[in-house]
Design a protein that fits this description.
By secondary structure, this protein is of the alpha+beta class. Helices cover 34% and strands 20% of the residues. The strands form 2 sheets. The chain has a 3-stranded antiparallel sheet with strand order 1-6-5. The longest helix has 13 residues.
């Protein structure tokens, strides 16, 4: 709007070289299937999600994969649930891992008036309990690394990765899936 305009031709500075096309989206979905990222879904669920993708404004491939059920956990770093937000996040992590990370007896003592929050859960016969700093209704960033440490301690096949999304997107992938998606620019990671 503030460019000098010396002619009646007003060319855009934008580049459309990397814009998503329906062909690129279809190829990405095929790649997601090939590496098993959609393996938990029935054919009808995949078809329904593809139809939803056609109706959405897709800005990047993260928007595509986020359309499929139980693949990406979308959350906000500012907590919406002020009753048991950490327990709710742990439950969401379990859903996107498709049972590989399956804690039970999940509990948090979240209270806006506290300086620390205790989170505990049982996993593979062991009880995990830790404290997080309370910062009003914001998630303690240590939560994310803590859960990946628990995953590593239990030698699970995957890990939780952050993807670029409006808010916070978390996806559970094996190292080979992560490398494939990253190297082929099929997702935008923030890790």
């Amino acid at each position: 709007m503030f460019r000098q305009d010396d002619s009646y031709w007003d060319l855009s500075y934008e580049s459309y070289d990397r814009q998503l096309t329906s062909t690129k989206i279809a190829k990405a979905i095929d790649e997601y299937k090939k590496i098993g990222a959609l393996g938990h879904l029935e054919k009808e669920e995949i078809t329904k999600s593809i139809e939803l993708i056609k109706e959405k404004e897709i800005m990047n491939l993260n928007d595509v994969i986020s359309t499929f059920s139980d693949v990406v956990l979308s959350a906000d770093v500012e907590l919406g649930n002020l009753q048991n937000p950490y327990a709710e996040l742990v439950s969401g992590y379990s859903e996107i891992s498709h049972g590989e990370f399956s804690p039970s007896h999940v509990y948090d003592d979240f209270d806006l008036k506290k300086e620390e929050i205790t989170l505990s859960f049982d996993l593979n016969g062991e009880t995990y309990q830790t404290k997080f700093k309370a910062n009003g209704d914001w998630i303690d960033p240590a939560f994310f690394s803590y859960l990946n440490k628990v995953i590593a301690d239990n030698k699970l096949s995957g890990k939780f990765y952050h993807i670029y999304e409006d808010g916070m997107g978390i996806i559970y992938l094996t190292l080979s899936q992560f490398k494939y998606l990253s190297n082929n620019e099929l997702l935008v990671f923030t890790d």
